[in-house]
Amino acid sequence: MLEMVKGANVGLASLSEDVGSVVVSLAWCSGTGDGDADVSVLLLDADGKVRSDADFFFYNNPAAPDGSVQLLGKTPTADGSEDRISLDLTAMSPGVERVVVAASRYGDARFGDLDDLRMTIADRTGEALLGFSITDAGAESAVVFGELYRRDGGWKLRAVGQGYETGLAGLATDFGIDVDDAPEESQDPVEETGTSPSATSVEAPAESPVTVPTQAAAIEAGETTRTVERKRRPRTAKRKVTLPRTARKSLAENEAWRQARLFPASSLKNDREREMRATSVLLSVMAQVPEFGRRLTAAFGAPAGRMETFTEVTLPHGDTPKRPDGVIRVERAGKLWTALVETKTNGNSLRSEQVQDYVDIAARRGYEAVITLSNDVELEGRPLVDVKIDKRRKNKVTLWHLSWAEVTHQAQMLIRHEGVGNAAHAWLLHELLHYLQHENSGCHGFQNMGPAWVPARRGIEEETLCQGDKRAVEVVESWERLVRQVCLRLGGELGQKVLPVQRAKRGTDPHSRRTELADSFCADGRLNAEIRIEGTPGTMAIVADLRTGKLRTAIEVPAPEEGYPLTWAKRLIRQLAEAPAALHIETLVHGQSGGPRGTLEHLRPEPADLLPKDGSQITGFRLSLLKSMGSTRGNAESGFIRSVDDAVDRFYATVVAQVERRQPRRPQLAEAVVVR
After folding, report:
1. Which pLDDT tens digit goes with each residue over 271-320?
2. Which of 154, 176, 238, 533 is 20 to 30 A off residue 599, Cα-Cα?
3. Closest by alpha carbon to 641, among 514, 649, 380?
4. Residue 596: which of 606, 579, 652, 539 has the closest Cα?
5. pTM for the model
6. Is 363 helix (H, G, I), strand (E, B) or coil?
């Protein structure tokens, strides 16, 4: 991989033959685990300006209709997080001369507070081509990492590393965009109350690129009905369609009537039928809903183009033809991108020899990828199957994995929060989501802690599990998979970024990190995790204590910068009016390991009991809730996985969502972006 320095440039074609589609990754980390930033992409013309607001991609506008730009979202790394962007350079409009890749922080946050700022670019096979590290970040709240630009019929990349203390607004202004964080007053304010619960679609030109959320989504995000004063401006985009959570009142005579479904799942009898049905259902919706198909394949190096999907295709392989579960083909400019698909449902595991056969077939036939799909969650540095890829072949084949939990997450994000092109597409995704969540589909995500769970749990109870035991490492890996799935599920429900926080020394490889966590698990019998939910005041801690059989969920709320301690305590108690009486509240005191504490039931009549008697400085409050832990390894009512899901959901709904957001919100740029 080529390491670049600030100001250097290089032609992409000199690094790889497969640069028609590239993935740009921006990464950073922080010691506290809660440092984050948002990526943005700007498409510029020959004058160095955006042609319209459609050329500005950020968290409220994550994808281009032609597939040339798509923000793929964040993935956790060993010591931070990585934000990925798919750029299909072959689909880029001829009027685009430069592609600027940047990131911004909001509020008072600065890039100098983050460590290891880095950009990498990989070709469509996932092979890293170049890297660029920014080491001089300081007071900037927005940074241009790099830019791609046309030169002599190809594309080159320049490592920029330029910062803006004026944030995203200053960066956007430089490229021809006016950003008004507070909309100007207007004579005709428009009151937005969200989509009516009885509405099923919206298909009308919008006055701005705002996607108006459903009323249920607004309530979940902690927002109330608000008045937004818009500027009058030309109509530029159609409002995308989302489906409300509250269904229309049924016309059935009684509850025994079953609604007709596009993809019925009740008649499925065995695993083979489940695999065939799940593959066909998913691939057909991918081909019919461009936003969804592109969302799932962009990270695999597929171009933006016409997609067709197939099932049960027979391909020659020696004396015994092979039948992969599915095939995906994308055509653009007369060229084909092809991926073979191998699917597993329920608790069935992928078989290395079967996947190896498909990799060999793909290499011989000039296909680009093999995609495995199962309920398991792939971990960094821990592939689900071991296959050999012959790098001497001219045609490179890449192996990718997709979990059913990720498929469900992407469908939820589109139909509940981001929107799709029309009502028919939204309905198709709704039917897909109903199928995936049906008890007979077999597509329920990670649902088994593995064979090591029961003996490891008994070893903790009997204090016989020793450090270095491989079973402890297997339990830690299963715990990490479960936490990642919790983040996907919760993020899809909320429409927010939810990521696991992984605290480790810089440079620690994933295997060493898990070994260290396994030794700690053997010593204290606890599995620990932290997740960061966008918009909440801190990270949510999850602790599974196998010695006591209890699950603890907790969050630390920082003290306000203004006001008096007694006012803080009273306000906090008021905010927790709907929280369980057993909620434990502890005052965090500067320079001390702990402060006054008590249950919400006892603190409601006496909030002053939270104040230190000696008048010590209060830095915040820790809110925690205990719940009994499931013992079995599966996903049944008495299972450990179900108990973790329930604990996280209950704590978020009754505690975290009730706490007032004290951090400054990001400016809602989609409501106030005006092109000069």
Report:
1. 889 999 999 999 999 999 999 999 899 888 888 889 999 998 999 888 88
2. 533
3. 649
4. 606
5. 0.81
6. helix
